[in-house]
Amino acid sequence: MKRVITYGTFDLLHYGHINLLKRAKALGDYLIVALSTDEFNALKGKKSYFSYDKRKALLEAIRYVDLVIPEENWEQKVNDIHEYHVDTFVIGNDWEGKFDFLKKEGCEVIYLPRTPEISTTQIKTSLGKN
Ligand code: C2G
Predict the structure, then answer these.
(1) Shortest-distance atom of ligand 1 to CA 71
(2) Which of 6, 44, 91, 99 has the most ligand 1 atoms within 8 A of CB, as the residue to mutate?
(3) Which end of the chain is more exposed for a tag (fewer CB within 10 A), N or C?
C-alpha cells in the first residue's frame, strides 16, 4: 500500500483543492491530509473562515481522503512521514523546493501545478465586492 501525505488549510473548499487531492490520491492508495489547525493558521498569518473541525468534516467527506490529522507546526513533517509510514509527500507548486529536505527521510517529494484562477483569497475578494 502506497501512502501519500499532503498539508494545507483547505479553507472555503474549492475545485483547486479537490484537483490537488484527486491528483495526490492517484499517486498512491492511501491519502493522509495534515490539516492546519486554527492555531497554526495564525502562525501562517492566515485566518480561516471555517474552524478546524468544520474544515476537517469537509475533507473527510471527500472520496480521495482517507485520513485527516492536525497540522500544528512547521516541524512535524519529518515525524509524520515516519509515524504514518508515508511514501510520498505532495503539495502544490507554490511550495516548489520548500520541502525537498523530506527526500532525506526516504520520502518522494512531488510538487503539483496549482489550479489557475481560483484561491480562497480570490473567493473572499470577489464576494466582498457583491
Ligand atoms: N491549491 C491548488 N490550487 C489552487 C489552490 C490551492 O493546487 N488554486 C493547493 C495548494 O497548493 C496546497 C493545497 O491546495 O497544496 C491547499 O492549499 P492551502 O490551503 O492554501 O494550503 P497552504 O496554506 O499553502 O498550506 O505546511 C504546508 C502548509 O500547511 C500548506
Answers:
(1) 29
(2) 91
(3) C
Amino acid letter at 55? R
Provide the grid cell at 65: 481522503
pTM of the model: 0.97
| 91 CA to centre of ligand 1 in angstroms | 7
Half-sphere CA count of 124, side-chain side, radius 13 A = 11
Distances (CA, A) of 95 to 51, 67, 101, 125, 128: 24, 22, 13, 23, 27
Share of the chain above pLDDT 70, in %: 100
Where do runs of H (alpha helix) occur along the chain?
15-26, 38-44, 52-60, 76-83, 120-128
Beta carbon of 40 within 6 Å of any ligand 1 atom: no
Atom of ligand 1 nearest to the CA of 20: 7
Per-residue pLDDT reduced to its tens digit, 62-83 = 999 999 999 999 999 999 999 9
pLDDT at residue number 130:
73
What residue owns the CA closest to ligand 1's atom 30?
8
